[in-house]
Amino acid sequence: MSEIKVQNEKDIFNPNVKSFDEREAELVELQAKEKELQKRQRNSPFKNFLQVNKETYKLEDKLMKKNPLAYRVWRFLANNMDHYNAVMVSYNVLMEVFDVSRTTIYRAIKTLEDGEYIKIYKSGTSNIYALNDNMVWNSWGTNKKYSKFNANIIIGESEQNQKTKEEIKIKTEKHKQIKLAQPKQGDANDK
Predict the structure, then answer these.
(1) What confidence tens digit (pLDDT) does each residue in 110-155 have?
(2) CATH 2.60.40.3450 describes domain 51-156
């Protein structure tokens, strides 16, 4: 695209020279088009779709054969990831979802990490799992260049600090009420 020159008045002999008003109108129109495109993308019937790279199907197939649980965990993570391929979920939740031991989940996660199906990032003591964006993607292709981590977080019922009514007891204390007697007139203390 050729360079556009903007100045106070339009030069009718040079199509690359525009007035400030013309350029402002062009920019307003471009902005309106971009907003319309974004609106259509947000309202797209495909917003809940997961993009899968056909070329990586062999890797999925290999994972299904090698470690079916790891594949199921990978699909669980893919189903729950945000628009930047990230999800935060604890081992306890994964143990509950798949009804397996901590060691079994550890081996499945290790298989996924070693095979580069996922990357693991630390946030304190929690893990954030980011799926390989060359295999699956959960947003527009233009977002692939960003590394934003506001991951979806999955918390299991067992991880929540919920107390039952029996566990929550309101303690009441009885207080003795002591009234000070007013001295009577004529007491020895009055004199």
Answers:
(1) 999 999 999 998 877 778 898 888 887 776 554 544 444 455 666 6
(2) no
Structure tokens at 8: 């106070």
% helix, strand, coil for the chain, step of 5: 40, 15, 40
What residue spans define the domains of the chain? 5-42, 51-156
Euclidean distance between CA atoms 153 and 4, whole angstroms: 47
One-letter identity of residue 132: N
Cα dist from 65 to 2, 3, 69, 115, whole Å: 55, 56, 10, 13
Per-residue pLDDT tens over the stretch 35-90: 888 777 676 555 666 777 888 888 889 999 999 999 999 999 988 888 778 888 88
Q: Which of 102, 128, 98, 134 is nearest to 116 (CA)?
A: 134
Six token digits for residue 183 = 């001295």
